[in-house]
Specification:
Elements: E1 4-12, E2 17-23, E3 35-42, E4 45-52, E5 62-68, H1 77-84, E6 90-97, E7 109-115, H2 120-134, E8 143-149, H3 158-166, E9 170-177, E10 185-186, H4 191-194, H5 197-201, E11 209-215, H6 217-228, E12 238-242
Parallel strand pairs: 7-8, 7-11, 8-9, 9-10, 11-12
Antiparallel strand pairs: 1-2, 1-6, 2-5, 3-4, 3-6
């Protein structure tokens, strides 16, 4: 029997951004940072899309997905269906997986860099740490969360981020807006490295920090080049997850 998820709620962030909560079978689990690939059938064709899980394992059997509606013609078939479907709609599960997860043996401080919906896997990781701290566990390293968005209204999970700040899981939260003025940081999230903002907070030394990148492929490529010039190495010091508008190549239907 195929595994299915059922849509149980939706929180609109903007007209084109929403957090969808699904119930999943109780025998399924995931590691914070992993993704779930869902699909539906249309005229005998499977339409699939992977999404990073934006909730922590302690929330099971519910999972949250932070999703942007793709409005371009001939693109985004999955998101168009999702944004128009009713509560109670079911989708099929293709897989849960991925290796974009925290290395709990690594004692270095963690810089989490994201753009747009790329914040989702970090919220899963961060909330998991908060829940573990509530249960008495402690962590020697701290998280610096760098979150790039177009407008202030696009920033999501504000309550989760504040709770993580209160519990000391997040040491610094630095949002930056690329298309809105006002107070705070301006420009794409890459500019926080390029203009020296990050190096005013902590030393960019691979012996002291590990960097996670999630979001737009262009952002990741730009930052990887910048960090490699600082001596950081792929996989060892830089972990990344690129977001695309199509199914991951390894998720063959």
């Amino acid at each position: 029997m195929e595994k299915k998820v059922k849509l149980v709620s939706k929180i609109d962030i903007t007209d084109t951004l929403a957090i969808f909560r699904f119930s999943i079978p109780t025998d399924l689990s995931f590691i914070p940072g992993q993704y779930i690939t869902l699909y539906f059938e249309d005229n005998g064709k499977k339409i699939a899309r992977p999404y990073s899980i934006g909730s922590c394992p302690q929330d099971l059997p519910f999972i949250d997905l932070f999703i942007k509606l793709i409005t371009e013609e001939n693109k985004g078939a999955f998101t168009k269906k999702l944004f128009s479907c009713d509560i109670g709609t079911e989708f099929n599960i293709l897989k849960i997986g991925g290796d974009f997860i925290l290395d709990n043996e690594d004692s270095r401080d963690i810089i989490m860099v994201c753009s747009g919906t790329g914040v989702a896997p970090y919220i899963s990781m961060i909330n998991d740490r908060v829940e573990k701290i509530k249960d008495g566990k402690s962590f020697s390293n701290k998280i610096f969360l760098l979150y790039g968005a177009s407008f202030k209204k696009d920033l999501a999970f504000n309550e989760d981020i504040q709770e993580a700040l209160d519990f000391g899981v997040i040491k610094e939260f630095i949002p930056t807006l690329s298309r809105e003025g006002g107070e705070g940081h301006k420009g794409r999230v890459e500019t926080l490295f390029e203009d020296g903002t990050i190096e005013k907070l902590l030393e960019l030394n691979k012996k002291k920090v590990v960097i996670y990148l999630c979001g737009h492929p262009g952002m990741i490529d730009n930052l990887k080049e910048f960090l490699k010039n600082k001596g950081f190495e792929d996989k060892l010091d830089i972990k990344f997850e690129k977001y695309w508008n199509e199914i991951k190549p390894k998720d063959n239907l």
